[in-house]
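Cross-check.
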Amino acid sequence: MGKAIIILVIGMSVIISMLIFNLNKNSGIGLQSTLDSYSETKSRLIANSGIEVYLEKLRRDKALSGNFLNNSLMSGSYDIYIYGPDSLLRIKSIGHFNGATHTSIASAKREKITIPNISSSIYVSSDNLDLNLHGNMDIDGNDHNMDGTLVPGTSVYGFGVDDSVDSAYIVNTIKPKISNSIQGTGGSPSVSVVNNTTNWLEVAEDFIFAADTTLPTGTYSTGTILGTAANPKITYISGDVNFSGTTSGYGILVVNGDLEMSGNFTFRGIVIAYGDSKIETKTTGDSGIYGASIFVGQSLEMQATGNAQLYYSSQAIENAKANLKSSRFQILSWWE
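Predicted model, tokenized:
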């Protein structure tokens, strides 16, 4: 009887030990599975976040391309590979966390910049138009090349406004010398109400979002270059600006404030000056804008005491359309 009890106790001890061993083993397996699943999920999040990070970088650096390895994120890391043209851009991201890896690949298309139809060399949208034009100013809606040479047979209005009141004001108040210098569709002075439903404030905001260069308010002198013919730029200036020296640019220039050109300033493309209150544009030097100029504000004052050539140029506008890049992407596919 005693031996039977001892054998029973030993047997039960062995069974219990085996049960405990198996429970611990299963517990370990379950814990490891949980850790593996967590690591895999974390590496996936890191890989996807890496694509989002570099899409934002691509928004600002439109020439970004190549391999960018060992980027730290969320206690892990990721490697980025960017390749392909803007029409089919591929961003490959490999996320790493605690021994687990995950690969995500996004295909994207960079959208082109959108420039609305422009039907005048200068377009003004203002509730209170105030013009003070003196000096030698040529506002010409006849089409020109970017070098200033005339393109025969094509033209738009020299000066476009929103309503007949502004049109009559310009025709009746400017001096004959300036009036005769506003050329374009319809003869001299080429001033007309244009059928323009474009919200230029929204357009300006879209350009600002896509800006290649952002500059603070201030004076910019000789040597300032805002893009070239082969590589035009979208430049945004957040405040009043004075171009006081020999400066040049190609593309789109957006100024949220007053624009003063007191030096030899030449820009080929589209210039937009806008503000919530009064906008002043002053030309006191030898300046030229080849393309189109847009002025939007509650009140607008234009002063010209220098030699200003404001010529419509479809070539300059088309050059901006063809070469400027948006900062918006269309995601074509996402593979994981």
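The helical segments are 2-60, 164-173, 176-179, 200-209, 314-323. Residues 1-12 have pLDDT under 50 and may be disordered. Passed to J.P. for a second look.
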